[in-house]
Specification:
The complex is a heterodimer of chains A (451) and B (81). Chain A is an alpha/beta fold and 451 residues long. Helix content of chain A is 29%, strand content 23%. Chain A has 13 helices and 21 strands. Chain A has helices spanning 42-49, 58-73, 91-99, 109-117, 134-142, 152-165, 196-207, 226-247, 273-276, 280-293, 310-313, 405-408, 437-441, and strands spanning 14-16, 36-37, 40-41, 53-57, 79-84, 103-106, 125-127, 146-149, 170-176, 190-191, 211-217, 253-255, 303-306, 317-328, 334-338, 355-357, 365-371, 380-388, 395-399, 419-422, 428-432. In chain A, strands 4, 14, 15, 16, 17, 18, 19, 20 and 21 form a nine-stranded mixed beta sheet that branches. An eight-stranded parallel beta barrel of chain A has the order 5-6-7-8-9-11-12-13, surrounded by seven helices. In chain A, 43% of the residues are buried. With 81 residues, chain B is α+β, with helices and mostly antiparallel strands. Chain B has a domain at 28-81. Chain B is 48% helix and 19% strand. Chain B contains three helices and five strands, in the order E-E-E-E-H-H-H-E. Chain B has a three-stranded antiparallel beta sheet with strand order 2-3-4. Classes of the chains: A alpha/beta (451), B alpha+beta (81). Chain A binds chain B through residues 1, 3, 6-17, 326, 328, 332, 362, 364, 389, 391-392, and chain B through 15, 22-27, 29-30, 32-34, 52-56, 60-61, 64-65, 67-68, 70-72, 74-75.
Chain lengths: 451, 81
């Protein structure tokens, strides 16, 4: 038969019919093939850059930050967003958020240097993190960045540096607090409820070596209730008012940190992520209403800073992957092995990422465990997912992968792939090249040091 | 390798195995393959027939056919002769 007239192939399928009682979660799987990313065909992307492949959407990132800003600025007069570098510090990503007016929020010297390289002025950098070195702090002080104090050792180090440089560092105090949810993140900063935070604020004012500018908190990650932010904002605002009243210092900003959830579905979640994720409006309403409750004079109303990362970038990227092989488990269950593993999709440890086929398919599905290519048993991308009958060489699109994966990924066994971005005009640019063996071996050495 | 004579297969791809009491569904190509197995066609003939009409290579389909046949065995639908 003429090859152009051949029928699209699908594997022969035999499936037991199990007539069970319908359950509340027993809805049919409904997938549509994802053939393109912002108009660029998946097949063309794979042909040019290979598989696996991270693809970011400039359009989606700008839509997200503009929507978030609109939610907050329509409720509160003074708002700044600071792009969370650890969420994704590829220059091409950071620059989009900086173009949209975001400052930089960094947590290490490496990230600090990246922000400077990206053209962010020092006084638009917020320096968080529990492990700032002396050199990092010197740089931040000299550049007039906002240093968020995490612990007493850091406070005294900053005090010494203030004397050494004859500059008063611009600082904020990191505050951890109980927000009436299960997770109490008390690792960062000083506790509100037991008075640690207040003691540090008193000490800072008494030492007279700092410009106390703000208060900061980071209540957790993937916070699915906006109410937690209302509790945190109310405590932070009251703390700021107390500082003004009792210590005579005007707190210029409240930084509510990050932690807004994305639309990914957490493992073992009863409902899908899109159904339970609060909107930017809900977060904004909770935070701004809580601040307004505090007894600020209108002229003293602090600037509100937000360091949200995940909620702005997660749904702006997908990972294209390719089926390497199909096999069966001892019980007959379908195992499908793809070329993207947990080393590059770190988030698959806690999300059930949505997976879509990237080519047309029939109405026949099968239950599949989706494995990555690593020679490790933990390399599971989805433990249980219904997918059409996939052939070797078929492509899959794994959704909502923009946050953390390309900053937390590990080079292991294979090389890390291309990361590309589709512009608003539909042009594709490379954000990060695929690694080569030279990328790895050039860092190796056989020199000997006499110590 | 032969499909048990008592296996009932509908045109729409519904299978009933009276020996085990289990029911199964097939996709269209599954129906085609099982019909050929009923007719006791050898594996090579089945592969040639599918490859002639579908956009699949002989090795890719042979691999899938092995998997399909192994399931038929597991579901007790095949007789070895």
């Amino acid at each position: 038969m003429d090859s152009s007239k051949k029928i699209r192939y699908e594997r022969p399928l035999i499936k037991p019919i199990n007539a069970m009682m319908p359950g509340k979660t027993g809805k049919d799987t409904y997938l549509v093939p994802v053939l393109d990313v912002d108009g660029v065909p998946v097949s063309a992307l794979v042909e040019k850059y290979g598989s696996p492949l991270f693809v970011f959407s400039e359009r989606k990132q700008r839509e997200n930050i503009q929507r978030a800003k609109r939610s907050f600025t329509t409720r509160y007069p003074k708002v700044h967003f600071a792009w969370s570098y650890k969420t994704n510090y590829l220059d091409g990503i950071c620059k989009i958020f900086h173009e949209e007016g975001s400052w930089a929020e960094v947590v290490s010297g490496f990230e600090y240097d990246k922000a400077i390289r990206n053209g962010v002025s020092g006084n638009h950098i917020i320096f968080n993190g529990p492990a700032k070195t002396k050199d990092d702090l010197k740089k931040a002080i000299t550049n007039g960045s906002f240093i968020h104090i995490d612990n007493m050792d850091e406070l005294y180090l900053l005090s010494d540096l203030s004397d050494e440089l004859s500059i008063k560092p611009k600082v904020a105090v990191r505050v951890n607090l109980d927000t009436e949810i299960n997770q109490i993140w008390d690792r960062f900063g000083f506790n509100y409820e037991n008075g640690q935070a207040w003691d540090v604020l008193c000490k800072i004012v008494r030492m007279d070596k700092f410009e106390l500018k703000g208060l900061h908190c980071h209540i957790g990650t993937f916070i699915l209730t906006a109410h937690a932010y209302a509790v945190a904002a109310e405590k932070m605002a009251n703390l700021a008012c107390n500082v003004k009243q009792k210590l005579g210092v005007n707190i210029e900003y409240l930084d509510m940190g990050g932690g807004f959830a994305s639309k990914n579905t957490l493992k073992a979640s009863y409902l899908g992520g899109a159904d339970v994720c609060p909107s930017f409006d809900e977060y904004a309403e909770a935070i701004s209403t809580a601040i307004y409750k505090a007894p600020f004079k209108t002229s003293d109303l602090p600037v509100l800073i937000l360091e949200t990362g995940r909620a702005l970038i997660d749904d702006a990227a997908c990972l294209i992957s390719t089926v390497l092989s199909n096999k069966r488990s001892s019980s007959g269950r379908r195992f499908t092995i793809i070329d993207a593993g947990v080393n590059m999709l770190f988030t698959s440890f806690w999300y059930d990422h949505k997976v879509s086929p990237a080519q047309p398919f029939s109405k026949y599905y099968e239950d599949v465990t989706l494995y990555g290519p690593l020679c490790m048993n933990i390399d599971v991308i989805r433990e249980f997912v219904s997918l059409p009958l996939l052939n070797r060489g078929d492509h899959l699109v794994i959704h909502n992968v923009g946050a953390y994966n390309v900053s937390q990924w590990m080079q292991f066994i294979t090389l890390r792939p291309y990361v590309v971005q589709v512009s608003r005009e539909g042009k594709v640019s490379v954000l990060r090249k695929r690694e080569t063996i030279e990328t790895i071996v050039n860092q190796e050495s056989s020199t000997t040091d006499n110590l | 390798m032969k499909i048990n004579a008592n296996i009932a297969i509908s045109q729409s791809g519904y299978i009933f195995n009276p020996q085990t009491g289990e029911s199964f569904s097939l996709n269209p190509i599954g129906v085609e393959v099982i019909r050929m197995l009923q007719e006791e066609k050898p594996k090579e003939t089945i592969v040639a027939s599918i490859v002639d009409r579908y956009d699949v290579t002989a090795s890719a389909f042979a691999c899938d056919l092995d998997d399909f046949v192994s399931l038929l065995k597991q579901y007790e639908m095949l007789t070895d002769e």
